[in-house]
Design goal:
Elements lengths: L1 H15 L3 H23 L5 H17 L11 H25 L16 H26 L12 H4 L5 H6 L4 H10 L6 H20 L3 H19 L4 H21 L4 H8 L8 H23 L11 H6 L2 H4 L22 H29 L7 H14 L10 H20 L1
Helix pairs in contact: 1-2, 2-3, 3-4, 3-13, 3-17, 4-16, 5-8, 5-9, 5-18, 8-9, 8-10, 9-10, 10-11, 10-17, 12-13, 17-18
Length: about 425
């Protein structure tokens, strides 16, 4: 923690004197150290506090480089929010670890509990069938499939039917469920094993057909993280291999969206106009989220006292259609095309800096419980839940995950699967 405190202070001083490269570098080094601290102690490649430390602090370090004209100097309040977001999480996790944790136990091979092959097979088949049916229904009603549409940059965002699309994107859970199915030993019947593989391919094909880069990355990442959670000790090359698979698919789907390089560079407004798109695009998708948080801090006239964070409730119950004022709050961003924000955006929107602290402490508490529980997990669906949380911590710089109805829909499906497995195993 002392390392982070020193690095944060130094980074702020460098930023104050507009030494942006040094400011960013210091935080990137801190992020690497913080991740290594938890990984070295636990042997867990996807330790939740390690992931949050690496990506939240590392994302801030990338943002501090100030490579885009869209970026500006942050206020002291913005810096304070970023600092307290990390400190609340880290300290809460540390306190819980020292009071109630069992320490960093040696890794044990083998899993306890009865086999859940049969309920996992049912889960794979049922979710894939429902997802495919929902996708075909949307395609029939809307009259197009985004992958086959040319010259329409936002076709992917228009491929959406209220309520139905939740079922369509549920396919992202299937590859991870398939991994658990085979980790549990698979079926004695060869045709069932083949069917599970086919279902996984269908589940991965749906995001491609929807031209949804995020859903595809989410599905692959969830599959890898679930595998890592199950085995605890995993060679880093496995994660590297997943990245090598994702990158070309990401590029291909970007092209399929009909977004040309000139269009994207015009939006990103990089200081170096000749910077390659494969660098500028990831940079903006990380760095500008912190800028959007700064916009919120600078421009917000009044807090919403929990209404923003309860958006999943308004959406999933349909109350947003009955009472539109529940969601009629503007989003404060520095450019209308770049609307991604950080994990703590809505927490600040609702309660200011106190909301950031409370929310970060709550996240630290929940992540501690999951890290402890996964050491002796009996229900295999628990690893799926852990994998989801690992993604949200890894992408803490990206959006308000827990204000997203889809997140809670995934949690709901995961809960139903866990209950089914516990009864049928």
């Amino acid at each position: 923690m002392l390392v982070y405190l020193i690095c944060f202070a130094v980074s702020w001083i460098f930023a104050f004197f507009q030494l942006y490269y040094l400011s960013g570098l210091v935080l990137l080094l801190a992020a690497g150290f913080l991740y290594y601290y938890d990984y070295h102690k636990s042997g867990n490649l996807i330790h939740l506090r390690g992931l949050f430390s690496a990506f939240w602090v590392g994302g801030q370090g990338i943002a501090c480089l100030k490579l885009s004209k869209l970026q500006s100097d942050w206020s002291l309040l913005t810096w304070s929010c970023f600092f307290l977001a990390f400190m609340g999480f880290w300290i809460t996790f540390e306190i819980m670890e020292r009071l109630f944790g069992e320490g960093y136990r040696p890794i044990r091979k083998g899993r306890r509990g009865k086999s859940a092959v049969r309920p996992l097979f049912v889960g794979v088949v049922v979710i894939t069938t429902i997802s495919l049916a929902a996708f075909l229904f949307e395609a029939a009603v809307l009259g197009f499939i985004p992958l086959f549409v040319r010259g329409v940059p936002h076709a992917y965002s228009e491929f959406h039917l209220t309520g139905v699309h939740y079922l369509t994107v549920s396919c992202v859970l299937v590859p991870a469920l398939s991994v658990l199915f085979f980790l549990q030993g698979g079926s004695r019947r060869r045709e069932r094993n083949i069917l599970v593989l086919v279902m996984s391919l269908i589940a991965l094909a749906i995001p491609i057909l929807c031209v949804s880069r995020f859903q595809l990355i989410f599905a692959i990442a969830l599959m890898v993280f679930t595998y890592c959670a199950y085995h605890r000790r995993v060679e880093p090359w496995l994660v590297g291999a997943a990245v090598l698979v994702v990158i070309p698919l990401y590029i291909l789907l970007t092209v399929a969206r009909s977004h040309d390089i000139e269009y994207l560079n015009g939006i990103f407004e990089m200081k170096n106009s000749k910077m390659p798109i494969f660098i500028s695009q990831p940079y903006i998708y990380i760095a500008n989220n912190y800028e959007n948080f700064h916009c919120l801090v600078s421009a917000l006239p009044a807090h919403t006292w929990g209404i923003r964070s309860l958006f999943p409730l308004w959406a999933l119950t349909g109350l947003k259609f009955v009472f539109p004022y529940l969601i009629s709050f503007p989003i404060y961003v520095n450019k209308e095309e770049l609307t991604t924000v950080t994990l703590f955006y809505d927490a600040y929107y609702d309660f200011g800096i106190f909301g950031v602290v409370i929310f970060s402490c709550l996240l630290g508490f929940v992540c501690f419980l999951l890290v402890e529980k996964v050491k002796d997990m009996r229900n295999p669906i628990g690893y799926l839940l852990y994998g989801q949380m690992a993604i949200y911590m890894s992408l803490s710089f990206f959006t308000t995950w827990f204000s997203n109805p889809t997140t809670w829909f995934y949690f709901g499906v995961t809960g139903l699967l866990a209950f089914y497995c516990s009864k049928r195993s």
